[in-house]
């Protein structure tokens, strides 16, 4: 069965989780009923600055802000993928969570940190694959896209889609699109990539302009749909017949590939 996804390209209020979770709620409420999964950007609940303020804004997976995300996922019957600075037993991570409508929450902790992230966060160690309406799906955060080794690891795990949350700098926007297409092509899978848009302007932190440029890439690496820079929702259907046909064409055999139904 084909499934519909939305990449909700938003601006993020850095260090203001209440404002950000309210924005998530508004976007979810406005999506078409057909949407099964909605993605929001990297660190979309907390934003980020490369100092202790990011830790002060960090959230717990079992805390009240994530509870609100779970409530909105249940109310709209939509799975949500969203990023945030996470505090876990005194350690801090750049985390993306897959929140199912029934409240089950699966975290992925970014493995490949970039720039000032390493001053705040510890890298994760695990690949995370979650069963979604799009089939077995790998969770990926931004700079992780640069790792072809990770892409192979997901292929070995029978992944049929990647959900990517990003906050890609506008100056490097062409690389974002290139890498999303590459990870679709080399894994022969659908890739849904949601980018942050707008600017970061926080006192005593470097101003940053974000690319936006959310997109969906087909299993043959072709861009199926994309956004420019403005805040918007990118809604697309992931056709399982397209996935099956492309895997058959190139002779890909992976565990659990494209089951019936």
Rg computed from alpha carbons, rounded to a whole number of angstroms: 17 Å
The whole-number mean of residue pLDDT values reads 95
Summarize the biggest pleated sheet: 6 strands, mixed
Classified by CATH, the class is Alpha Beta
Number of helical segments with 4 or more residues:
6
Tell me the total number of β-strands: 14
Strand content: 25-35%
The span between the termini is 6 Å
Output the CATH topology: Nitrilase/N-carbamoyl-D-aminoacid amidohydrolase
Tell me, briefly, the overall form. globular
- SSE topology string: EHEHHEEEEEHEHEEEEEEH
Percent range of helical residues: 25-40%
Record the strand order, biggest sheet.
Answer: 5-4-3-2-1-14
Q: What structural class is derived from the secondary structure elements?
A: alpha/beta
Q: What is the level-2 CATH architecture name?
A: 4-Layer Sandwich
How many domain units? 1
Protein name: Carbon-nitrogen hydrolase family protein
Pfam family, one: CN_hydrolase
GO molecular function: hydrolase activity
Keywords: Hydrolase
Structural write-up:
By secondary structure, this protein is of the alpha/beta class. It has one domain (3-250): Carbon-nitrogen hydrolase (Nitrilase/N-carbamoyl-D-aminoacid amidohydrolase, 4-Layer Sandwich). Helices cover 26% and strands 30% of the residues. The protein is built from 6 helices and 14 strands. It has helices spanning 17-30, 52-56, 64-76, 148-156, 173-187, 240-250; strands at 3-9, 35-39, 79-88, 91-99, 105-109, 129-132, 135-141, 161-166, 190-195, 199-200, 208-209, 215-217, 223-226, 232-238. The strands form 3 sheets. A 6-stranded mixed sheet has the order 5-4-3-2-1-14. The protein has a 6-stranded mixed sheet with strand order 6-7-8-9-12-13, covered by helices on one side. Strand 8, helix 5 (173-187) and strand 9 form a beta-alpha-beta unit. Helix 1 (17-30) packs parallel to helix 3. Mean pLDDT is 95; it is low at 257-261. Keywords: Hydrolase. This is Carbon-nitrogen hydrolase family protein. One of its GO terms (molecular function) is hydrolase activity. InterPro entries: C-N_Hydrolase (IPR003010), C-N_Hydrolase_sf (IPR036526). Residues 3-240 form the CN hydrolase domain.
